[in-house]
Amino acid sequence: MAVIGKDIAEAKQLLSEGDLVAIPTETVYGLAGNALNDQAVAKIFEAKNRPSFDPLILHTNSLEKVKSFVREIPQSLEELAKAFWPGPLTLLLPKKEIISDLVTAGLERVAVRIPQHPIALELLGELDFPLAAPSANPFGYISPTQAGHVQAQLGDKIQYILDGGACQVGLESTIVGMEEDQVVIYRMGGLDLREIEKIVIKVEVRSHSSSNPAAPGLLKSHYAPRKPFLVGDLQKLIPEYLEKGERFAVLSLARKFPLPADFPQYQLSESADLAEAARHLFGYMRSLDESNVNLILAEWMPEEGLGRAINDRLRRAAALG
Ligand code: TXA
Ligand code: MG
Question: Is the pTM of this model over 0.90?
Fold first, then answer.
């Protein structure tokens, strides 16, 4: 089993030797390795059981370092970087030679972000290489938002998990790039689109095209729990499944429903605060997936702000594409 600890020097040592370390970020925990070391990058794909056509995000701690990995930063994207880094924003930028095709799965652009987590930033500041880090979950499963989640699923594949507590955002970063002069959102995430629209006027959201080869990670079943997961109107779904005699769990935004006492039921945020809901989403999905039920019933969030990103994850959990 991996050791869970707060020893940044230990993490640095392992990473410098080409080993993997799970690291905290404000979005979700990442499974990190030296992005400039192909063997370390290969270990990431292997540990996650991730297909090699699904590229990785580079993590570093300064815009200056980012510039050493990419050929250019279009002005609109640099404005976003200045406004939101460190933070839950990933930019797709034309890569320099130094970044291997293994990291980008052969694509011209590399995904880069500066995470906002004191431990991650301190670690990145001490490294003379960027970290490639996908979410630290087996491919296709829910992203981890606590060190214990990583331990439960990848603990036998890595030596060290750097503990940074519970992730404050709870959803993966928002992925943004440019096509011609158009700013494109490839994955809705922890950075609210309305914040992005304050800086660059018009964005195009493309994150629902699950077959888009430019963002191959956006596959239908991403983020899926193992139990059947249904999303809809709980007022209708609950009586329907009670009638069928099913034992189920309920995941709602704020409402509580009358249910048999031993049916698990979680509210993502009692005050219907979408940032709080985002923070709780993956942890609650995990607990319900591990609970003693046959299926999970959930409801849609209001389609605004982070609610849109949460709905995207619910849609994928339900394999609705
Ligand atoms: O918040 C996050 O972004 C977390 C933390 C650890 O930073 N990382 C994360 O990585 O969510 P991952 O690998 O689970 O998801 C990255 C997504 C994938 O869907 C991948 O296909 C896409 O980013 N991606 C990475 N590089 C890309 C590229 N060059 N072009 C298009 N999509 C890319
Ligand atoms: Mg992931």
Answer: yes
